[in-house]
Amino acid sequence: MKNKTVGAAAAGALAVLTMFGPALYLSSGQAAASSPVAHTAHGGGHDHSVKYDGGGEIEKDFEAQAELDVLATDCSQSALPPHDGFQDAPACSSAVFGEISDLDKNPQLLIVDSPKKIYEGEDFTLKVSTRNLVRDRFLGAAAGGYYLETSLLNEDGLQRGHFHTACRVLASDDEAPAPSNKPEFFQATEDGGGGAEPDTVEINVPGKNDDGSARFTDGQLVQCTAWAGDGSHRIPMNEFANETPAVDSVRIKVD
């Protein structure tokens, strides 16, 4: 297994895109509507498991598909302005979803090592492992590349893209946090590595801000998340609906 180190001071052949503050993402501030139905494979919800015929091919029920209540497949009837690749919403994106890899080539990601506790002002390292993700594609969101490009696979059928790492302070661990585009730490990694075999990248999180103040302070609960992105920052699509996407989180206490 290959290992690479990525941090604020990394240079040379390792191309790491590091961005702090509000430049990368812009939240619309609108809450998503909740659904009263739990979409689970068991317990009375929706079953997303697939069925196969005698030849091992997936059975496709086109009659059932024809009865689905599809509200829209494009932006032609949307009242929202078209999304233009910049971080501005509400808007409707007409970018085509694009290419989806085969099951055994679907991207996966895991934070394989992280501290459970840090001290105020202390640097720390996260180790992120990716599989089936070729980290060679990144369209700058601030440059208008956000949700702009379709998903693309390489000649081996692997997802082209990169991964993000962000750390934020949780106000509570009893409820979902309010949306925000200002994490205390954010980094995008497009280092030319990755592939079918898993490898590991080290993400170094500075304990202090540029002004010398502590990035995280005593008593805070920090959530650090890593997630894969295609060239335009969407979490890569999977072949099946019941697959876990390429995202992982850890929580770290600050003393």
Could you give the order of the helices and strands? Answer: EEHEEEEHEEEEE
Counting DSSP E segments of at least 2 residues, the number of strands comes to: 11
Low-confidence stretches: 5-37
- CATH H-level superfamily title: Immunoglobulins
Shape: globular
What's the N-to-C terminus distance?
A: 33 Å
CATH fold label: Immunoglobulin-like
Structural class: mainly beta
Give the helix proportion (percent range).
under 10%
Strand content: 25-35%
- Tell me the count of domains: 1
> What's the architecture, going by CATH?
Sandwich
What gyration radius follows from the Cα positions, in whole Å?
20 Å
Q: Helical region count?
A: 2
Output the CATH class name.
Answer: Mainly Beta
How would a textbook summarize the main sheet? 7 strands, mixed
Q: Could you tell me the mean pLDDT?
A: 86
Question: Could you outline the blueprint of secondary structure elements for this entry?
Answer:
Layout: E1 3-6, E2 16-18, H1 62-66, E3 108-113, E4 117-118, E5 124-131, E6 133-134, H2 141-145, E7 159-170, E8 185-189, E9 199-205, E10 221-230, E11 247-254
Parallel strand pairs: 1-9, 4-11, 6-7
Antiparallel strand pairs: 2-8, 3-5, 5-9, 7-8, 7-10, 10-11
